[in-house]
## 1
Amino acid sequence: MDWSKAKNVLIVAFIITNIFLVYNIQKDAFNRGDLQLINDARIKNVENYLEDSGLQLDIDIPREIVSLPRLMVKYKVFEPKELAEEFLGEDYETLENNVFTSEAKMVQSISNKKFVYKNLMNEAGCYPLDEEGAIEISNQFLKKHRLMQADLELQQIYFGVIEDFGDIPLYKLVYNQTYKNKFLAESYVHVYVRHKEIVGIEAMLLEFERTYGDKKKVIPATEALLRKMNDIIKDNQEYKDIIITNMEIGHYFNPTDSNLNFTTWDTVESGTTSPSWKIVLSNGKTYYVEAEKN
């Protein structure tokens, strides 16, 4: 037997087998949408550059590059009179611009896609409240008024003074929608809790209709950060520290997209999401970076 030829055949077979295995591993990873392609050196270089530029990172930069489809979505409709009865009862006064009041409570429907509720009653007492208590009160209120959907997740909690609610600190709870464990934006429910009362709600929600087209490969998180870095720094010059606390990939519907044949948000009823990176700062500001790779 020609052992030299046999050895060469084995080497070639080994290489072919490895190529086949790598291909299948990558194919499976793409099918799962979780193929990791960003190496540690690239991550470290971007981290150093961001911090040298004035952006602090309180996160690990996501390493995964995934593929996501576009989604067809529409705004959830909030009928003005139904909102008034839901939050104010049957005895309410109708004002202009879809504003309804009852004693110190107010609800407003904005273009039937967004609503604001406020309870400006003077609270009878001052009750200490921790985060768990605020979450419990908020969740109960949302369930009572049929806003606690299965795709709604509590993602952020802030405590402090908010201008629209006076100079007494309160909790702001931020709920966001998801689609298959990825964020679906811009849709949200903001709940404001002071002591043991819900003093405000702002909500705008989307409804999923269907997927649109094939999955699209997205840009890496490092590229999204570098693209948005200057805008974030410019927009937060008044803050001593600019800290990124969360970053994730998901679906973002931009109703002012130039591809839409609409001129104002008021007229938009539905549209298509784009795969996008969401960047959240410690001060609550949120930025989106369109992530579809060209």
Note: DSSP finds five helices and 17 strands in the chain.
## 2
Amino acid sequence: MNIASTQQLWGGRFKKPLDKKTVKFNASILFDQKLAMQDILGSQVHAEMLGVQGIITLEESQILIKGLENIKQKIIDQKVEFTEEAEDIHMNIELLLLKEVGDVAKKLHTARSRNDQVALDLRLYLREEILNIKNQIQSLLVTLKNLSQQNKNTMLPGYTHLQRAQPISLEKYFGAYSSMFERDLSRLEDCFKRMNFSPLGAGAIAGTTLPIDRIFVAQKLNFSGIIQNTLDAVSDRDFVIEFISTSSILITHLSRFCEDIIVWATEEFGFIKLDDAFATGSSLMPNKKNPDIPELIRGKTGRVFGHLFGILTIMKALPIGYNKDLQEDKEGLFDTVDTIKNCLEIFIPFIESLQFQKEIMKKSTVDSYIWSTHLLEELVKSGVAFRQAHELIGNLVIYCLESNKYFKNLTKEECDKISAFIYPSLIQLKII
């Protein structure tokens, strides 16, 4: 089904048709068709409100609602061909409706502008996607909880400056990332609460003199309320900024997790073996097994950051009101949503497939000096001043390095040369 030019919907004050280059440059249908279902839903509720308020007849209202439902089904069945000549998703659907129900379709846009219409569509879209991403994060948290329980007693080195620092358990490691993702979940919930207000009825910027019922629309669409200031309603994109900002923090946490996995999967560390189903090889080197999934997630982090800087740059100098610049808010938002969802979708089964090399991890805690802080604190418990204990254990580490030994190899006589408190402390810590 082809659609005529959108100019017939707004071209009353124009004497010339649009230049073809203008049509192509101005069109957003290639990406904003993603909002088709939200646009139809918003229009159906708007049509219902117009009928209830007596602005159009109830019969006309029902014709519009049913016509929009038919168009919705045709879109689902892929029987609709959107066109750049119709500019955007709003006008594409309105022109489709004109063909579907005739001239009564011309009443649908009563008391509405595309400015408040697109603001509504975006909120409906993002509201749904936030719930989808929340569900994915909750699934990830369940996975991390299971991994924590399975590896409660698995010890490995904890690192500072990427140098072995203190022994930790895999339970503590997974718990750290669980804490990060719980904060991400909380931020998404906050974002949802702030954005869940209806802009519809704001018109272009100043509302309408027609007796509409904005609260009726908000309630029908399950919003918490309406955006009171109509000027703010059409010009606000804080919710887009906040979502992409929250997504940037979320994917930062994923990226850090992925960096750990990439390092741990190296032969130098050997803490992880990658499952064949979640790794790739080399077209040249037959020995290779590459961690492409965590590398791609790490790479896509910069992509989301770019979208955040993009929307901030768009908004930073816009005068209040609606400006066409806001057409550029969508592609970055859509791509951020898709990127986050895709990363979470693959990351959960990926980490479930990892094979943790527990003996290598444990050996790394024994064949090292990462128990030094514990040993220091045992001396403090015995009455040695902290600074003195720090120096004594430092001297012990030097001795071990020069003697090519670890704490587990020391004799009582060797320990006593530095401090009589050291050997009993090694026994207490079960190092010897």
Note: The longest strand covers residues 163-169.
